[in-house]
Amino acid sequence: MYKLEELRKYQFFDELLNNNDLSNILDSLTGVILRNYLIDYVKVLIESNTPFSLGILDLDNFKSVNDNYGHQVGDLVLIDVAECLRKKILDKGLVARYGGDEFLFLVIGDYSYDDLHKLLDGFYDGSVIRKNVKFGELTLFVTATTGICDFPGNAKTYEELFEKADKTLYRGKTKGRNCFIIYVERKHKNIDVSKLITTDLYTMLYNLNFKFDHSNTFFDKIRNSANYLQTTKKISYCFYIDKNDDMFDIETGNLLFNMRLETLMNHENIFKINDINKIASIDKDVFEKLSSLKILSILIIRIKNIKDHYGYVVFAEDKVNRLWQVEDEAALFFFATIIKNYLVNNEDK
Question: What is the DSSP string of 145-192?
């Protein structure tokens, strides 16, 4: 929770506190600033042409925390993240609760891209997020997605600043969450947020099946379907592993290597992990082969029917430690199912 002396060093808040109690300025749950006061301060900085950067931090999959563990645990997560974020930038700027599981933070000063990258990288080292948070016997792994934009380099008004920070936040979500994006004009100027909105699940699965059915050879079917999934889900790689454990690059059809996954799968039909370094202690051979492909996180679905095993399909990410979502799992499971149906119907031909 912010203390009087921490806010009075800013002239705007010093004057505000002359006529307001501290409790009226702070969010009652998290103890960080209410968003309207931070927004007002941002506008003061813009009027005085003071350089700064505005970021939006959104906790990943927070609804599932409330749904699975209750709102009391959800509140404790919010309190922990808010306090850690406040301490992290205490000598650099301010934090506000924007609403729900979103926070605004302000970093005052003329920060370069590299400076901001180093700062945000520090959020993700386990001090603020990307960490285990313990509440009694319960342990939750907490991550977030962050977008940030600077003034005056990339925006001239609060509205423009927020819109660009929000755009980069949304871009981070489409890349799998658990990451930060710094606004860069040449990279993000023409991004249409409406086109980043995920295709609804029914449409995606219908189109996937259409791509598979209307391709010729088996590998054409896999390649065209996988390319559609990669584009729709913003995923770096999709691999096919046949029943002999031969792993193929779907894009080229090239055999990469033979890789047995049974130790990893442990007789389950799905395996997902957002940090493949954790695989090293499970199966060193699999870890080394995945590392050779520069993969950071992976989602694997077994291709099977009740009694027969036909291989695996794999989503892999090499840019971020992707948090695999339910829709990612559903899409890959459906892909595995149509491959299985094809193989079953054609195994005797």
Answer: EEEEEEETTS-SSHHHHHHHHHHHHHHHHHTTSS-EEE--HHHHTT--
Q: Which of 161, 192, 223 is the last residue of a domain?
A: 192
3-state secondary structure of 12: helix
| Domains in the chain, number | 2
Q: 86 and 144 in one domain?
A: yes
Strands 138-142 and 255-258 come out as: unpaired
List, for residues 288-315, the tens digit of each pLDDT value. Answer: 999 999 999 999 999 999 889 999 999 9
CB of 83 closer than 8 Å to CB of 103: no
pLDDT in tens, 215-251: 999 999 999 999 999 988 888 899 999 999 999 999 8
- Which structural domain range is residue 11 located in? 4-192
Mark whether 210 and 337 lie in a shared domain.
yes
Q: Yes or no: say if 147 and 170 are a contact pair by the CB < 8 Å rule.
A: yes
pLDDT of 25 reads: 96
DSSP secondary structure string, 235-270?
A: -SEEEEEETT-EEEETTT--EEEE---HHHHTT-SE
182 and 93 in a common domain: yes
- Which CATH number belongs to the domain containing residue 103 in this structure? 3.30.70.270
Measure the CA dihedral 172/173/178/183, to 10°: 20
| d(C-alpha 209, C-alpha 212), whole Å | 5
Helices and strands (H and E) in the chain: how many: 15, 14
- Amino acid identity at 207: N
Task: Answer yes or no: do 185 and 299 share one domain.
Answer: no
Cβ–Cβ under 8 Å, residues 172 and 145: yes
